[in-house]
Design a protein that fits this description.
Strands 2-3-4-1-5 form a 5-stranded parallel beta sheet, with helices on both faces. A 5-stranded mixed beta sheet has the order 12-9-16-14-15. Helix 8 links the parallel strand 3 (154-158) and strand 4. The chain has 25 helices and 16 strands. It is an alpha/beta fold. The chain has 5 domains: 3-79, no CATH class; 88-211, P-loop containing nucleotide triphosphate hydrolases (Rossmann fold); 229-381, Orthogonal Bundle (Helicase, Ruva Protein, domain 3), CATH 1.10.8; 411-536, Up-down Bundle (Substrate Binding Domain Of Dnak, Chain:A, Domain 2); 537-693, Roll (Hypothetical upf0131 protein ytfp).
């Protein structure tokens, strides 16, 4: 072997070693230490800390944001990655009567409580005039401001973005403030979401504070406790210890709900904007119910918090189920134990009942910045998806900030034309509907004929749209027809490997990029074509249906008509088969076999034949063949199963229907389980018809 080949093999072995090392480590981002995933000597010496982050991006993109935190901490200091709370004393010290103080809001934040507390500390609570701007509030706000300038009061105008028509008047009022005649104690406080109608002059001359929602359990707990005091902690006469314990539990529950959103559909189907106001009303109710009842009314506490205060925002039934199950862990008698821990790692725990406010704040400050999914009841894999999305979003923002320069490459029109021709040649033509209807006529005893016809009608509409639009685009690129706005948008989508909007409007829900989407469409049409050619399949590919709910209804209808019973009394029983789809050689007597579902948040364990824990770094696993068995007047089992929702795509969210479920929701499957339902509910376990790749 030559020296060059030896060097090449050695380099290849190094790559394999590095990959294995970084892949097995839980914290591979700490490549600049001697403890975690140490790089080979020549790599470690030849790369600086920033270059190591770039190297890490290639192998473990989910850990890039953690490496960025280490990089900032090492070069700028720990305080630049620590959550910081707003100090209004410092802001006020630099203000004056002619300088407006502006809170630039973000979703889910409200600085009103902080300002009210600051006004009390400054002995200005009785001299603070507050008004929430909106329709018809302009004249009242103007009179309040003029009176405050004369008497030396504070005025607090909330939500300026909701009164864009009055903003020119506010700008005129601020311009007219005379520094020689205005009272020196006068201050103008404003809050507004980013809005193009907000006066630029006020922004330029004012002191601006950005109020962003805290990120992480630590930051959320700190925000909750920083506004409290020892007087409040000891205000629950007769049950001070219980109040302290349940208050910490409540604040932690609030933080968990807020942070579950970052995990996407694994946390909640819809990312609800829970606010500090929800927490404050729960605090007041907790104190009130503890003082009014001899025994701690956990049932009342759970109902008011889970169903009313927080649950009032929840619109999806599966999310409501999740909120109530999470709340069960925090509003319970077990949290009154001074040694109670909320997680197995014992990071989040109760404090001794004699603890004062400073002890709670000190404990919160000692918590880790980055949360483990354990406190949320999620698997470690949940962090991978979140971290990857966070990395790609951060890097995209960084690229947007870079100067734009022209790059050499293949002509854009040539690329689009090549893609259009490729898709046009691969996508099947519409199926002959008349021949199918003749072969599979409408029959009372076989509803599947109607289901097949409806599926072909839907797919034909999509296939016609694809062929017609691509042919129009190719003509437009040659100058034979006018290039419309719709065709222009379509060409951009093709170039960006995205499904054009005009296709997705008549298509089934999908998150796949264009290349994968075309392959998926071809497979779907092949599934329908095989049904037409060879009759009803032994195993139905449920992911291949345009509208799977119609197929499920058709299966129930066949059973009801066969046995002459009311379809309202028929529902599905479920059996997970040990056979593969290739092993199934005939259709069942009643019901049907289905395949094509993927488990997210867990996996199917074929050894124990129950739902099992996910393997590390395995985000999705395929579910075996399922037998849907229609039964009359079926009783749902009370144990040994997990009521698992089935969704069309990974987003899970969709337009909410009157049933309380999204249009993305298909139906519920009873999956055998050796663990409690609560365990999998907190895991966010669901079955998905189609992935995003």
């Amino acid at each position: 072997m030559s020296e060059s080949e030896q060097a090449s093999n050695m380099k290849s072995c190094q790559y394999d070693l590095i990959y294995l090392c970084l892949n097995k480590e839980e914290n591979p981002h700490q490549v600049n230490t001697s403890i975690k995933a140490t790089l080979p000597q020549e790599w470690s010496d030849g790369l600086d800390d920033f270059q190591k982050i770039i190297f890490l991006k290639c192998l473990r993109p989910d850990k890039v944001t953690n490496a960025m935190q280490d990089f900032v901490s090492n070069n700028l200091g720990q305080k630049f990655i620590e959550p910081q709370t707003a100090d209004l004393h410092l802001v006020f010290r630099d203000s004056s009567a002619i300088t407006p103080l502006i809170f630039v809001l973000s979703v889910g934040t409200d600085p009103a409580a902080d300002l009210y507390k600051f006004a009390e500390e400054m002995k200005f609570s009785k001299r603070l005039n507050t008004i929430s701007l909106g329709q018809g509030q302009g004249p009242r706000a103007e009179s309040l401001m003029r009176a405050a300038m004369e008497k030396g009061q504070w005025v607090f105008f909330q939500n300026c973005h909701l009164s864009p028509s009055w903003m020119p008047s506010l700008e005129r009022l601020v311009e007219q403030v005379d520094p020689d005649h205005v009272h020196k104690d006068f201050r103008l406080w404003l809050t507004s979401m980013p809005s193009p109608q907000f006066p630029v002059m006020i922004l330029q001359n004012g002191s601006k504070m950005t109020v962003e929602p805290p990120r992480g359990i630590k930051a959320n707990l700190l925000r909750s406790y920083i506004t409290l005091s020892d007087d409040f902690l000891t205000s629950c006469t007769g049950k001070i210890d219980e109040f302290k314990h349940l208050l910490l539990s409540l604040c932690l529950f609030h933080a968990v709900l807020l942070e579950r959103r970052k995990f996407g559909p694994l946390g909640f189907n819809i990312p609800y904007e829970f606010t500090d106001g929800d927490l404050r009303i729960c605090m007041s109710q907790l104190r009130m119910f503890l003082m009014e009842y001899t025994e701690i009314a956990y049932k009342v506490l759970k109902y008011t918090a889970g169903e009313i205060n927080y649950g009032g925002r929840v619109t999806d039934d599966w999310d409501r189920r999740c909120v109530m199950n999470v709340l069960d862990d925090f509003y319970a008698a077990k949290v009154l134990d001074a040694n109670f821990c909320y997680d197995e790692s014992q990071i989040y725990h109760q404090l001794p009942p004699v603890s004062e406010h400073q002890a709670y704040v000190g404990y919160v400050r000692s918590l880790p910045i980055n949360d483990t999914p354990e406190i949320f009841g999620l698997h470690e894999n949940a962090n991978i998806t979140f971290a990857q999305n966070e990395t790609y979003r951060t890097l995209t923002d960084l690229l947007e900030l870079q100067p734009k320069t022209a790059t050499a490459g293949e002509n854009r029109d040539v690329v689009i034309e090549k893609l259009a021709k490729d898709v046009l040649s691969r996508v099947p033509h519409p199926l002959p509907l008349a021949a199918v209807m003749e072969k599979y006529p409408v029959m009372y005893e076989q509803s599947m004929n109607t289901v097949l016809t409806q599926e072909i009608i839907r797919y034909n509409r999509l296939l016609n749209m694809i062929h017609n639009s691509l042919q129009e685009l190719l003509k437009a690129m040659k100058g034979l027809v006018v290039l419309s706005q719709a065709l222009e948008e379509m060409s951009k989508s093709l170039f960006n490997n995205a499904v054009p909007v005009m296709w997705s409007k008549v298509a089934y829900p999908s998150l796949k990029p264009l290349a994968s989407w075309v392959l998926d469409l071809i497979q779907r049409v092949e599934f329908v074509q095989a049904w037409v050619d060879h009759g009803i399949p032994n195993v139905f590919w449920i992911s291949g249906f345009f509208f799977p709910q119609a197929f499920l209804t058709g299966t129930l209808q066949n059973f009801a008509r066969k046995y002459v019973i009311s379809i309202d009394t028929v529902s599905f029983g479920f059996q997970v088969m040990k056979l593969t789809s290739k092993d199934v050689i005939q259709t069942p007597t009643d019901g049907c076999y289905i395949r094509g579902l993927f488990v997210e948040g867990a996996r199917w364990d074929p050894a124990t034949h129950v739902l099992g824990e996910s393997r590390a770094k395995e985000l999705f696993t395929e579910m075996p063949v399922l037998w849907l068995q229609p039964e009359q007047n079926r009783q749902t089992p009370t144990s040994g199963i997990y009521m698992c929702p089935v969704y069309k795509t990974l987003t899970r969210a969709g337009t909410l229907s009157t049933t309380g479920h999204s249009t993305n929701f298909v139906f519920t499957i009873e999956v055998p389980s050796s663990k409690s339902q609560k365990y999998w509910i907190k895991r966010g376990v669901a079955l998905i018809c189609a992935l995003n790749y």
